[in-house]
Amino acid sequence: MSKPPPNDDVAIELRGVAKSYSLETQPWRRLWQQLSGRQASGREYHALNGIDLRVRRGEVVGIVGRNGAGKSTLLQIVCGVLQPSRGERRVNGRVAALLELGAGFNPELTGRENVRLNGPLMGLSAAEVNRRLDGIIEFAGIGEFIDQPVRSYSSGMFMRLAFSMATSMDPEILVVDEALSVGDGAFARKSYERIMALKEKGTTILFCSHSMFQVEALCTRAVWIEGGVIRMDGPAHQTTVEYSEWMARLEQGSPEIQATALRFETAAAAIMRVHVRPPPDGQAWRHGTDALLVEVDFRSDPAMPCPTLGVVVLGADARPITSVGNWMDGWPLKRDAEGRVSAVVEFPHLPLLKGRYTVSVYVLCDRAINVYASAENVASLNVVQDHLAQGIVSLPHRWHDHVPA
Predict the structure, then answer these.
(1) CA–CA separation, 95 and 122 (whole Å)
(2) Which of 189, 214, 248 is the last residue of a domain?
C-alpha cells in the first residue's frame, strides 16, 4: 500500500503511533532487549497504542485526559523528545515546546549564556539568537540576574526565562503541557498574552491541560486520550463535556465526594471574603422560592487591568451544575483605587432540585482565561422541595393539549 502524498496544509501527522516500555525487572534482560530491539512478551507497558492524529496549520487543539492516559507521551513524540515504538510521525515546521520549562539549562552558566547555548538547539542560528536576545531578556523581566548563574535563580525566575526563550523563537508549532501559569500574576498575564498573540498569528498549537475551562477558551478542537488511545476527537466544547461526564461517572462509586475547601491566590489577586446569605429558615433553600445570593470581596493589583469574577455551583459529585461570569453577562466590576472589588451574584427562585451542592469562586484575568485566585467549595448548600420531581434542575416548561403551531 503506497503512502499518501504529503499535504502542505498539515502541520502534525501521526499514523499508527505506539509507544511501549519494558517492565522487565532483570538488568541483563533489559540490556538484551535494548541490544536486540525486542521485548519479552507480556512484559510491556503501552503508553500509546495506535494513535492517528492530523493537525492542520493554524489549528489550536486541546489534549485532555487523566494522569497516566498518555498525553505527555504524545506531546513528547510530537516534539521529537521520544521516538515511537511503532508508527510514523511527521511534523512540518519549527517546534517550540513548553513541556518541562528550562530542562536543558546548565545551572553553572548564566541566564544569558544558557539562552545563547540553547538557541541553536531550538533551531535558531547564532545571529538569530543575538538579534532576539534583548527581547527575551526584557520579556523575562529578571533584571541583572540574567548575568548570574542559573543555580542562583528562584523557581519563578527560572521559569520566566525559559518561557520567554521558548516563545520568542517565532515557532510555527507550539506545544504546551500545563506550563502557562508561570511566575507571578503580572507575568502570568503576559504569558497568556504571548500565547494568544501566537494563536492570532496562525501558529499551530497543541495545548494539554486539566482545566476544561482553559481548553474551551483557547482551543477550537479537543482530543481526549484514555488508556493510550484516542477516545474522542471533536469540537472543544463537545469533547470537554463528554470527558467531564465520563469522569463524573467514574467518581460515582463513592456516595459523596468530600467537598474540601481549597484556596489559591497570587500577587495579582486574592479573595478576601465569600459569603452565601443563609436561607430564610436558616436551614435549607426551598426550590423555586428562595434566592441564592453569593457575596464576594477580593483585592487585586490596581496597576493591572481589572480582573473578572466567576461563580460555579457544583453537585455532590463535584461536577459543575452551572457557572456565571460577569464578563459573560456584560456586567463590569467596580474597582476602587486600591484595587478592591465587592460584588454579589443572585440566583432568584433557585431552580436547583433537592440535594447537596457547593459553591466555588474564581478571580480571573481581564480576558477570563488565567486564574488569579480561587476559593473552591467555599460554601455548602442544602436544597429541599415540596414535590417529587427528579434530577438536578427544574427547567421552564409548558403543557399543551396538542403540538403548538
Answers:
(1) 8
(2) 248
